Amino acid sequence: MPPGPPHTSAPPQTPAPPHIPATPHPAQAPPPQDPASHVRLPSGVADGMPGTPPAASAPDPASTTLAVLLIGPAGAGKTSVAKFWADRRRVPTAHISLDDVREWVRSGFADPQSGWNDNSEAQYRLARRTCGFAARNFLANGISCILDDAVFPDRPVVGLGGWKRHVGPGLLPVVLLPGLEIVLERNAERTGNRRLTDEEVARIHGRMAGWYGSGLPIIDNSQLDVAGTARALDEVLARSIASPPQW
Fold this sequence. Notes:
Layout: E1 67-71, H1 78-87, E2 93-97, H2 98-102, H3 118-140, E3 144-149, H4 160-167, E4 172-176, H5 180-188, H6 198-208, E5 218-219, H7 226-242
Helix pairs in contact: 1-7, 3-4, 5-6
Pfam family, one: AAA_33
Protein name: ATP-binding protein
Region (Disordered): 1-61
């Protein structure tokens, strides 16, 4: 029988190197935010931790940077409430009054009480654009703002549409609408060109009633003082932040 192939032993196996887990790459820190960049206005319920009910994660209106448009007829108390509300917030807040800005025009002031004309309408439009520009500047620097204006529901393009264009879609409109007898009493206490005739006040109040059914939040402050109205405004804003009105 022929001899078989010579026996050869297998070469020794080189042991595999021990497994060393890869070192994770350190996470990149987010780039610093430009302090002058525009502040994102609340558009709904804020993101919360898993399992947190949506209502519990809604921002607190008293400490959230936001923009509010307070709507109402002459004598509704818009300016008083806006100032009081802005004074007592826990975050920086500015009050921007359309009438105050409109009265920056000293020579050539077009007083609507003398009759609406192209000049008075143009000055109102200019004041609204100026207020909107100021609001965007405040918001871009982390300062909330509240604006007040007598916006009519039958002129949405000029009123609400104009404010949305000037300030942004995050603007939160709230209607302040007490009873007619209340606005007549408050108007009677006014002086200068801000005091209107009873007939004009009644006409404006009647047009403002069109906000009912519009979907915007309405506060009837007939039985509320300024502080009570400001508290009601905070309650309304909390609901508006959690579920923004469609407008």
